[in-house]
Structures are given as structure tokens and as C-alpha cells.
Amino acid sequence: MEKQRKRAPSQRSLQTREKILDAAERVFAERGFDGASIRDIAAAAGVQAGLVHHHGGSKEALFARTVARRAETLSQLRLDALENRRAAGPLTARDLLDCFMGPYIHMAGSGGPQWLAYARLVAHVSADPRWRDLAADWFDPTARRFIAELAALSPGADPRRVAAGFVYAVAAMLAHLTSGWRVGALGLAEGGAEAGDLLDFCVAGIEATLAPAAM
């Protein structure tokens, strides 16, 4: 007997799934994994809890889906920026960090509030070792590519120090996106953190890690 073809999701079903993922992104970003509930996410999406389970699965599965949803787009934006910059001439540490950070900062600033919520969500993932496998699947391949490019600028550098410097730079980027307003508060001036200041800070740190290892 011929197998029955699986029906493609309707447009309404796809829209509901996106609405649920948007709500999950906001709730997980605000409350973290432990502080969020399926009921909270359903309320934020304006749907029944059963629909959240239908489209997202368990809370753990929904969290993973929410993290993964924008990761591929972000990775491609970074790699495209890298190849475009490479075509212009030899790469510097500043070029590499700008290619990695710039697309994220641009999307968080101009891609709507969901991209800013995603930055907060990624900060949760980065801070919690239980999401190691999730980070390995969606973030590490691109991170390793940029770390290798940085290490190639100084073959005598200690790979561990280069990787550590990169992780610290990513942490600074996430702080810029999620708590940059503190710069204005502590600096007793109007306005928050500037992307150029972030880049200056991170380049200085990375260049220190690229110094050849002591013999």
C-alpha cells in the first residue's frame, strides 16, 4: 500500500510557530531557562499551552529551537563579512573582530526587538555550561573559524590565549548589546556604549593575546 504523503504545514500553522518562537525568545531572554515556563510562553504568544508543546516540544526542545533559529543566519552574515573584507586586502585583528561583531550589532540595532532579545538569550547560553552541546552545534564552528584566522596573524601565539581572548571579546560584545546603557550611567553622560569603543577595547585585548609565547 502506497504511503500517504505528509501534508506540508499550512501558512497559518507556520505563522503560529513563528509567533510561539518569538514569544519564547522574549521570555527566555528575560527570565532565563529556569525562570520561564511553557505557560508564560503561551501567554506571551496568545495561544494555548498545548500549541506551544505541539510546535516546540518540551521546554528544553523549545529552548534549543529558539537558539538555533537565528544562529545560521548570523553565522552566514559573519562569514560573508569575512570574505568581503578578505577581498579588500590582508586582514588585521580589527578586521576580524569587526566582521564577527559587526553583523550582530547591526541586527540587534536595526533588525527589531527580537534580535536584541536574541542577544540576551545567547548571553544565557554562553554563561551556562549545561548548554555546551547547543553552543557546539550552532556557535562553535564559526567561532573556531575566526579564532583560526586570528591565530594565523601571529603563528607564534599561544592558541589557548588566542581562544581565551576571543571568548572575552564575545562576552564584551554581549555586554555591549544587553547592558551598554550602564556606560552612560557610570560615565555620568548621556547615551550608552558606542560600537567603536567596544571594538577598540577588544582589539587591544586580542592583540595582547597574539604576542608570541615566551620561550
From TrEMBL:
> Which InterPro entries does this one have?
Homeodomain-like_sf, HTH-type_TetR-like_transc_reg, HTH_TetR, PsrA_TetR_C, Tet_transcr_reg_TetR-rel_C_sf
Q: Which residues form the HTH tetR-type domain?
A: 14-74
Task: Extract the DNA-binding region annotation as residue ranges.
Answer: 37-56
Q: Which PROSITE patterns does its entry note?
A: HTH_TETR_2 (PS50977)
Key words of the record: DNA-binding
Q: Classify the source by domain of life.
A: Bacteria
Q: Does the keyword DNA-binding apply?
A: yes
| Descriptive protein name | TetR/AcrR family transcriptional regulator
